[in-house]
Amino acid sequence: MSEHVNVAEIFGKNVFNEATMKERLPKDVFKKMKKTIEDGEELDPSIAGVVAHAMKEWAIEKGATHYTHWFQPLTGVTAEKHDAFISAPNSEGKVIMEFSGKELIKGEPDASSFPSGGLRATFEARGYTAWDCTSPAFVREDAAGVTLCIPTAFCSYTGEALDQKTPLLRSMEAINEQSLRILRLFGNTTSKRVAPSVGPEQEYFIVDRQKYLQRKDLIYTGRTLFGAMPPKGQELEDHYFGAIRERIGSYMKEVNEELWKLGVTAKTQHNEVAPAQHELAPIYDEANLAVDHNQIVMETLKKVAGRHGLTCLLHEKPFAGVNGSGKHNNWSLTSDDGINLLNPGDTPHENIQFLLVLGCILKAVNTHADLLREAAADVGNDHRLGANEAPPAIISVFLGEQLEDVIDQLTTTGEATHSKQGGTLHTGVATLPDLDKDATDRNRTSPFAFTGNKFEFRMVGSSDSIAPPNVVLNTIVAEAFKEAADELEKAEDFDAAVHDLIKKLLKDNKRVIFNGNGYSDAWVEEAEKRGLPNIKSMVEAIGALTTDKAIRLYEEFGVFTKAELESRAEVEYEEYSKVINIEARTMIDMAGKQIIPAVIRYTTQLAESIGKVRSAVPEADISVQTELLTETSALLSDMKVALAALIDITEKSAAMEEGKAQAFAYHDEVMPAMAALRAPADKLEMIVDKELWPFPSYGDLLFEV
Ligand code: ADP
Ligand code: MG
Hints:
48% of the residues lie in helices and 12% in strands. It has 22 helices and 15 strands. The strands form 2 sheets. Strands 7, 8, 9, 10, 11, 12, 13, 14 and 15 form a 9-stranded mixed sheet that branches. Strand 13, helix 13 and strand 14 (448-450) form a beta-alpha-beta unit. Adenosine-5'-diphosphate binds at residues 197-199, 201, 281-284, 330-332, 340, 451, 453-454. Residues 197-199, 201, 281-284, 330-332, 340, 451, 453-454 line the site of adenosine-5'-diphosphate.
């Protein structure tokens, strides 16, 4: 049936990667490119023309007709504008294929309608895209033909970041510099660079495309706005499993092949907890590449689904009542010579370094929990965080019994003398056994869990960019490292100083450590006692971006200016309002044009049948029909009232000035009005003849893929 695939052969075949560059670039040019990529040195503009030429020739051999600067504006998805390689025809009417160094390095999309949060007025619409050579160019094959995609950053005329990539690259520079200081403190003189490694696990739902097309809510908002739970619950998953697997399997196969060609290391795939839910995880990459690759993964999941008569839903909560989708952001710090700073290691010396790193990360997370929470905020994720089978909205850290025990020892007696596994932890400072071998217990309910040699930030939404959480992680840890390095570099007795600092860091930041059940109500209470923030919604989270604390942090490390932070907050408030507005209007549309007419049809039929039965058999018991008619009519009337209320409040909110107050109005008033409309509609769905219900049910969508 399916042809044989040689992964090694197709892997990276559509990427202008190091091997291709080595093969196609003059030696000195290749060397300069490599230096720029590896050492973060500025690109020598004189080589751009040569690189552009080689890239173009390579792309044309692959059938490319167009190139695009591929960038990530603040819309959460990628953007691109395609230019053909062709030049103006010569006097004979012939064209040649052109692509200059200038075109490679810089683009100027007329980008006035990308969100900028006031950073760029529409009358100064200039935005620039700048080639990011640390993420390789690639060719994409699809219905549009073959396109050379050049990963780029996107900035305003005055140099402010308008995208996700620019701050990410800035934060990577910050964490690199501060991590190297930590390594040097421990005598490392050889590592040249430290970069965050990121492995994002991507969850998604797959539904049948024909059914999807019958639901305006899925089309306009990516989630269902109405829908009663299927009469039989999630336990049916197994029953339908076989049928799902066949179709999904061939879909996954094609997704993998497409990703491999683009150099994305799609590694694991499996069915997730909810029916019709799945997951894909790549092998981790350097943060910048991981972010780009995750965008490619999301695009590919959607694109390939169409070819299989399916639709991929990346929304965080496409269906109420079953699990939502997230993205686990696995994060660690790796040096160019292979040292993972989050690996506990097995010599005492390295363990001290690890404990310092751990202490710094705890401090970072404790100090900036609000920023981490904010980075995971998106409109869809509001339905997930703190709800069914999702991390709570409270940031806490899971370390596992073993590490927690070491911390207990250090903070109570001042010395860590043993580990729970029986290995001897002796120190002047502290030692740890090999944690990779003694993997601690899992905790599935922690938003920020230590998993052996990395932290897994589990709050991120499935449809969201992973750039913001990594910007936060890189920057807050850079700050903690900097403070530690500032202190330790001037210490006279390093061993004593580091010992004291580790103890202090662990003691001062212990309150964020929580190893219990994060889904329980007891934890919510306990967290409150500990003074940990519990930020329940996106609109409440956004303010974290512009506190004095955040501005100081980001300006110190050159990641965001105050103006950039303010613009981002503004963009998010606006995004929130816009999304909820679309959802509300979609509900109004569906209720008014589809559900209410269907219910009226049903009640009319019911009334007619009551009349007919009565005239045919006057003494027949028509209590069931009458009761149904009464009940349905009452719900119909509830719906009409709720619909009118939703229309009213949505119009009022839409008329407000854009910004924070408007976003809060959508959250505090429109959202509850939406819930009030949904409730009677979902009850009606359980009563009305299925033949008359105007769109596919949850059961149809979730179980009949
Ligand atoms: P777990 O079972 O702990 O969830 P997996 O092996 O399934 O871990 O990996 C989950 C994701 O974490 C994958 O994308 C994987 O490549 C990534 N990952 C593994 N090690 C690291 C690391 N050191 N830094 C960042 N990501 C990592
Ligand atoms: Mg995992």
